[in-house]
Amino acid sequence: MKYYSDKNRNLFTDFKTAVLEGLAPDGGLFVPDNIPVLSQSFFDNLHNLSIGEIAFEVLKPYVSENMSNDVLNSIISRTFTFPAPVIKLSDSLGILELFHGPTLAFKDFGARFMANTMSQFIRQENRELNILVATSGDTGSAVAHGFYGVEGINVYILYPSQKVSKIQEMQLTTLDKNITALEIEGTFDDCQKLVKEAFTDKDLRKNLPLSSANSINIARLLPQSIYYFEAFKQVQRNNNIIFSVPSGNLGNLTAGLIAKKSGLPVKKFIAAANSNNVFTEYINSGQFIPRPSVKTYSNAMDVGNPSNLARIDSIYRKILGSIREDIYSISFSDFETIEGIKELKEKYDYLIDPHGAIGYLAFDKYEKDTDDFGIILETAHPAKFGDVIELNTGFKIEMPKRLSDYLKAEKKSIKMDKQYDSLKSFLRSKKK
Ligand SMILES: *Cc1c(COP(=O)(O)O)cnc(C)c1O
After folding, report:
1. Domain boundaries, the chain
2. Which end of the chain is more exposed for a tag (fewer CB within 10 A), N or C?
3. How far is 77 from 187, CA to CA, in rounded Å?
C-alpha cells in the first residue's frame, strides 16, 4: 500500500515513512492510495472472528509492505485489549460503547495502535524517539497511555497548569516510566507554542530525535475503522445499518467511510455536530468556511477547521454528490444536548455523555425507513463529563474504578515557566 499526500496525488510514500513523519513534506495528510475491498468469505465468516482477528484481516494490506504478519499480530494483541460492545436499547437503536480503554474514550484505539507501531519501527533501527505533545486534556492522556511502557520512546506532555480538570490532570501525571508531565505556567496556546518552537529548533533537534503524536497520523486513523466491523458483527442486520458519529476533527467519521469503502454494508453515516458545525454546512451548502471554535459541553468536538475533511474530499475525489450519498449531517446546541441526555435516560434508562447525546439526537432526527437500525458511537464514558451532566440534569454518575483509581494515585509533574529556554535546557539534560 502506498500513501499519497492529499495536496498532491503524485507524492507517494510507504506506511512506515507516513507513520514516522506524520505529515507529508508538502504539509498534506497521508491518504491510502486505494482502499482494498474485503472478500465475501471475510464477511460470511465475520461472526466467528474476534475483534483482534478482524483487525488483522482489515489492517494487513495497509501495513504489509513494512511489517510481517507476526509483527502486525503482536501490535494488535497490545492494542485491542478491551471490548467494544453494542448495547441494544430497542429494535432500531444500539449504542456502541467505545470507552472501555484506559482513558475511557475512543481515542485509546488509535493512540495505542500508533504507539506500538512507532515503537516497532524505531526498534528495527535501534533508534530512540522523543515525543512532545501539548494537550488541553484528553488527547494528551490517550497518547500518554498509548505510549506508556513502550520501549525506545520517551513522551513529554505539556499541559497548562490549573487549566485542565482534576481527572484529566491525574490521567496525565500519574504515569511514570517513559512518560513525563510538564506542568506549564501558562495557557494551552503557550504549551503549543513551546512544542512548535522545539520542532523548529535545529540546534536542539541535531542531538535529540523528536516526533509528534499528532492526531492526523495515519496510524491513529486506520485502527478506528475496526470497531465499525465489530459493531456490525454484533447486530448482523444486513444493509440497513446507520452509524451516527459524534464528530469534531472527523477522524472517526473518516475511519467509518474507509470501512464502508472496504465493503462493510452501511446505509448511511450521520456526522453529528455541536454548534461548531462547519462540516454540517459543507454537506448542506457545499461551501466550506472554517471558523474559530466555540466552547460547548461536548468539548472534544469544538473544532472550527476539521483536518480530516481533506481526507474525505480526497477519498471521494471532491464529488459532493457522492459524499452526500454516504453522509448526512446535522448539528445541535448545548441546550438540545442536555435534552438528549435526559430523553435517552428516561426512555431507555441509559446514561450517555454529551458527545454521544448529539449522536443520539442526530439519529432521532434522521428520516428513517422502518427497517433501519441506528448505532450511536458513544465516544467517551459519561463519568468523564460528570460535572456537566450532574449540574444540568441532576443525574448522578458512578465513577468507574479505573477512573477513581487515578484520583488516589500520586501526582508527579515538573513545573515549568513558559519560556522556551526552560524547556530547551530541560530536554537537553535528558539527552543520553
Ligand atoms: C475526539 C473526540 C470526538 C471527536 O472525534 P473526531 O474523530 O475528532 O471527529 C468525539 N467525542 C470524544 C469524546 C472525543 O474525545
Report:
1. 83-103+222-398
2. C
3. 37
**Alpha carbons 358 and 24: distance in angstroms, whole number:** 33
> Of the candidates 403, 302, 366, which has an alpha carbon nearest to the alpha carbon of residue 100?
403
Residue 241, beta-bridge partner list: 266, 373
Residue with grid cell 437503536, as numbered in its chain = 93
Dihedral sign for Cα atoms in the order 188, 193, 199, 205: negative
pLDDT digits (tens, 9 = 90+) for 5-40: 999 999 899 999 999 888 888 888 999 999 999 999
What are the backbone angles phi and psi of residue 89, rounded to the nearest 5°? -100, -25
DSSP bridge pairs for 268: 242
Tens digit of each residue's pLDDT (9 = 90 or more) over 144-163: 999 999 888 999 999 999 88
pLDDT digits (tens, 9 = 90+) for 163-222: 888 888 998 999 989 999 999 999 888 898 898 889 888 899 888 888 877 778 999 999
- Ligand 1 centre to CA of 249 (Å) is 7
Under a CB-based contact definition with an 8 Å cutoff, are residues 157 and 144 in contact? yes
Average pLDDT rounded to a whole number, residues 413-429: 95
Cα–Cα distance for residue pair 337/356, rounded to 1 Å: 9
Q: Degrees (nearest 5) of the Cα angle 303, 222, 129? A: 85
355 touches ligand 1 (CB under 6 Å): yes
Query: Ligand 1 pocket test: which of 106, 214, 327 has the largest number of ligand atoms within 8 Å of its C-beta?
Result: 106
CB hemisphere CA count around 66 (13 angstroms): 22
- Protein residue with its CA nearest to atom 15 in ligand 1: 300
Cβ proximity of 140 and 200 under 8 Å: no
Q: What would the 3-class secondary structure string for 232-291 be?
A: HHHHCCCCCEEEEEECCCCHHHHHHHHHHHCCCCEEEEEEEECCCCHHHHHHHHCCCCCC
Question: What's the CA gap between 266 and 303, in Å, rounded?
Answer: 26
Contacts of 230 (CB under 8 A, 6+ apart): 51, 54, 84
Nearest C-alpha to atom 7 of ligand 1 is from which residue? 251
CATH of the domain spanning 83-103+222-398, picked from 3.40.50.1100, 3.40.50.970, 3.90.580.10, 3.60.15.10: 3.40.50.1100
